[in-house]
Amino acid sequence: MVPTDASEMDLATKVGQLFVVGFDGTALTADLRTLITERQCGNVVYFSRNVETPTQVATLTDRLRRLVLEEGPGVPPFVMADQEGGVVSRLGWGTELPSQMCIGASGDPTLARTAGEAVAGELAALGINFNLAPVLDVNNNPRNPVIGVRSFGEDPERVGELGVELALGMQSRGVIACGKHFPGHGDTSADSHHELPVVDHDRERLAAVEFAPFRRAIDAGLDAIMTTHVSFPAITETPSTPATVSAAVQRRVLRDELGFDGLLVTDGMEMRAIAETVGTPEGCVRALEAGCDLLLVCHTPETQADAIDAVIDAVESGRLDEATIDTAVDRILRYKRRRVSDSRSPSAPCWADAADRSAETARAIAARGITLARDRDDTLPFTTDRPLRVVGSSGGRGSPAEDDEFEPSLIAESLATVGFDVTCHEFDDPLEGPSFDDDAQVIAAVDDATADESQATAVSALDDRTSRFAAVLVRNPYDLSTVPDISTAVVTYDYTPATRAVLGEVLVGETTPTGQLPVTVPGFAD
After folding, report:
1. Which of 152, 281, 304, 444 is a plausible cystine mate for 310, CB 3.0–4.6 Å?
2. In this structure, are residues 152 and 163 in contact, taking their beta carbons and an 8 Å threshold?
3. What pTM was computed for the model?
4. For 317-324, what is the mean pLDDT?
5. How confident is the model at residue 35 (pLDDT cuts 50, 70, 90)?
6. Which is catalytic among the residues 82, 137, 267, 447?
7. How far apart are CA 471 and CA 390, in angstroms?
8. Residue 431: which pLDDT band, with cuts at 50, 70 and 90?
9. How many helices and strands in the chain, by DSSP H and E?
10. Known catalytic residue at 193
């Protein structure tokens, strides 16, 4: 039973409702138990470190809810995850959807709505009631190290349209959708996991581009918005103030100007843009002062406890008005009554039913989104009657937000399933090799060549000396700028199982790629 309002709670319980904590491992830990039973912490967030199988997650969520209700604050918890699709998919069981940029390349709002419904079906079946998606950032910076394909693209109108449909699809299945990262992380060249980025645009430009998708989502009834640890000198109190701790951003722009009355969630408060500037405990106090409702402290038990203590101390000292806490808690309780109080019990069999729909939707997105950026010499389709060689190199995570690392063998394995005789080769010295027989068909699996010049050099060399050659950009379409004269290039926007499967169909001519690049690539013209 969700309490009616904050007046029914003591201070410790109210403060516990404001926190969302992460933990290590795939079962309840002693530290997490302490946070819930002694600190009255009311919400958790799952990362890939907490996830093994659907049965394990369903069991974990069920035990977590019981602990919160029976030995903790007694209010059903928000159970959150970042299930965006593509490279940010905490539940990586083969049903994860392609990236938002792949949906952006499809340009199909109906497909975005179906995607939201599908992912929410999986999450709800496992007791996850709060998805930290969609990404509403407008990615118009080719050097953005953290957003990229997590965005629908560079056009504010398209980002807003597709983001609204994805969000409403989730909310129609009882899962809270959280648009992020307000005011916008799409035009940065730094990652807030590592440092404090600055977006130096004037107020008019911010309103026209960065704010636009959020405004549209707010008008459509978006449940929640996540703040970003980025400085916006045109609207923040000082040039070095992160938006998360800025009342000018949260109250004046988001609440007053845009009229948002939903849940306002911080990005992770242990990210360096906060931890190494204002500090995590102090940042949590300042975020509440600025107007945030929910504080994500995702990693360290000692920091989580310190942050909770800092908020309680701020109230008891009079620095933080308890009415501010009450307002946030009342908003949290309102959404728990709306989305959480009648949640069904986690169930792996129910997840299996939802997973079938997700897998079908994932293939539909990949089929509509994969983009043939250029095929100047009509190289495609390839034939399964001739050998296929896949050349690539292992990749790292582009950002701490991402879950997976790329391996060329993933592409090779998928292409083998459509009948190719495939061998996999590593990128090496482009002047020395690899070299292939005249009848070979060659694919270069390109992953983040903008950060690795050797990949671009090798791809250009292979294109020059191989008659049947195609570059497959497995994530970043901006990699096209490193090989502007490439003869044949396919962009997949991610390397999820569905995308890899459809790529095979594209290469043999069974599926015609119809996606369009949703971003402008400097120096590349199709």
Report:
1. 281
2. yes
3. 0.95
4. 95
5. very high
6. 267
7. 10
8. very low
9. 17, 16
10. yes
**Residue whose structure tokens are 């995570």:** 397
Say which DSSP state 34 is in.
H
- In the chain, CATH 3.40.50.1700 covers 370-508
| 31: three-class secondary structure by DSSP | helix
Sequence-ordered strand ranges (E) for 120-261: 130-131, 176-182, 224-227
- The mean per-residue pLDDT over the stretch 344-350 comes to 82
Q: Residue 129 has what DSSP assignment?
A: -
pLDDT class for 343, splitting at 50, 70, 90? low
* Number of neighbours of residue 29 by Cβ within 10 angstroms: 13
Summarised one tens digit per residue, pLDDT across range 189-215 is: 666 677 677 888 999 999 999 999 999
Preceding amide of 134 cis, omega within 30: yes
How far, rounded to the nearest angstrom, does the alpha carbon of residue 101 sit from its chain's CA centroid?
Answer: 11
Rounded alpha-carbon distances, angstroms, from residue 176 to 130, 215, 227, 325: 5, 18, 16, 21
Mean of pLDDT values over 110-135:
96
Tell me which H or E stretch contains 425.
Answer: strand 422-426
Q: Which residue has the tokens 């100007």?
A: 257
Asked if 61 contacts 79 with a C-beta cutoff of 8 angstroms, the reply is: yes
267 is catalytic: yes
Count of residues in the chain: 526
Which residue did the predictor score with more confidence, 348 or 446? 446
Cis? peptide before 434, omega within 30° of 0: yes
pLDDT of residue 189: 66
The CATH classification number of 14-139+154-351 equals 3.20.20.300
pLDDT at 67 > cutoff 70: yes
Torsion of CA 236, 238, 239, 242, to 10 degrees: -60
Residue owning tokens 């005011």: 183
Burial 46-57 (b: 16+ CB within 10 A, else e): bbbebbeebeeb
Q: How far apart are CA 156 and CA 222, in angstroms?
A: 17
**DSSP conformation letters of 267-324:** --TTSHHHHTTT-HHHHHHHHHHHT--BEEE-S-HHHHHHHHHHHHHHHHTTSS-HHH
Q: Max alpha carbon distance in the chain (Å)?
A: 78
* Distance in angstroms (rounded) separating the CA atoms of residues 503 and 495: 9
What pLDDT is stored for residue 323 in this prediction?
Answer: 95
Count Cβ atoms below 10 Å from residue 338 Cβ, excluding itself: 14
pLDDT value for 402: 74
- More reliable by pLDDT, 428 or 440: 440
From 31, 62, 193, 330, active-site residue: 193
What does CATH list as the number for 370-508? 3.40.50.1700
**Sequence ranges of the chain with CATH classification 3.20.20.300:** 14-139+154-351
Q: What are phi and psi of 19, to 5 degrees?
A: -105, 140
